[in-house]
Amino acid sequence: MERSSLKCKIGPSILNADLSQLYVESQKLIDNGADYLHLDVMDGTFVPNLTFGHPVVKCLRKKIQNAFFETHMMVQDPEKWIEPMADANVNQYTFHIEPVLQNVLKVCRKVREAGMKVGLALKPDTGIEAVRQYIDHADMILVMTVEPGFGGQKFMGEMMPKVQWLRRNYPLLDIEVDGGVGLNTITSCAEAGANMIVSGTAIINSVDQRAVMASLRETVESSIHKCNV
Ligand code: DX5
Ligand code: ZN
Questions:
Q1: Most exposed: 20, 74, 85, 89, by fewest CB within 10 Å?
Q2: How far is the CA of 50 from the centre of ligand 2 (A)?
Q3: Ligand 1 centroid from CA 38, angstroms
Q4: 178 catalytic residue (yes or no)
Q5: Which residues line ligand 1 (CB under 6 A)?
């Protein structure tokens, strides 16, 4: 397989959108060029904030049938929500390894058995060594570039060595960045090797969502291309 099969994907986070209009906001993002929707699920325990859970995701899925849904599970007990999220037709279940360090493989297996892709997420303080042994059991690694919990925080450039390490060792791995990613920070992410780009406020607050997503994509694609020559 050639490295060129690595694809750039833009996954807006609707966390800071008008959640009373969840469907309209989500559909607008898809119409403006999103490759997938990054749905931030928080339980108020793993992170000091609450958002929505599987009942809301299931309702959204009824309205939007074709888009790829990733749920970013910022929850203390990720095992608990696998079946309900699979039932909501979620495509990828991305969970934090920190609360389940003794059980990562078991959770990965259950996510796969439920028919979803596996994403493994790392908080900023979690080093790459904590996830190394599980990479072969995952479809994607999410390197958080802010402390999970809130949109609109400052991007942590010091996370880029984790992305670089992953890209160097896994040329075809899907690597996602999330937190503070926008037009001012995308170059670092792209050069480090991220190919799945979550962006919340930078897209939601812009007057031209389509242009922002196109620009994020262009930056990432040009880095992927440079790696191929
Ligand atoms: C933070 C969430 C992110 C965040 C992205 O806990 O996981 O998805 O909402 O929003 P921005 O891009 O505004 O940091
Ligand atoms: Zn997220």
A1: 20
A2: 13
A3: 9
A4: yes
A5: 13, 15-16, 38, 40, 72, 146, 148-153, 178-181, 198-202
Match 């670089």 to its residue by tokens.
164
Domain span holding position 186: 9-224
Is-catalytic flag, 77?
no
Residue 3, domain member (yes or no): no
24-67 pLDDT, tens digit per residue, is 999 999 999 999 999 999 999 999 999 999 999 999 999 999 99
Closest CA to 29 of 12, 41, 17: 12
CATH of the domain at 20: 3.20.20.70
User: What is the rounded distance in angstroms from the CA atom of residue 84 to the CA atom of residue 53?
Assistant: 9
Calculate mean pLDDT across residues 139-153: 98
Distance separating alpha carbons of residues 42 and 20, to the nearest angstrom = 17
For the chain, percent of residues with pLDDT exceeding 90? 96
Which one is catalytic: 31, 40, 125, 174? Answer: 40
> Does residue 50 belong to any structural domain of this protein?
yes
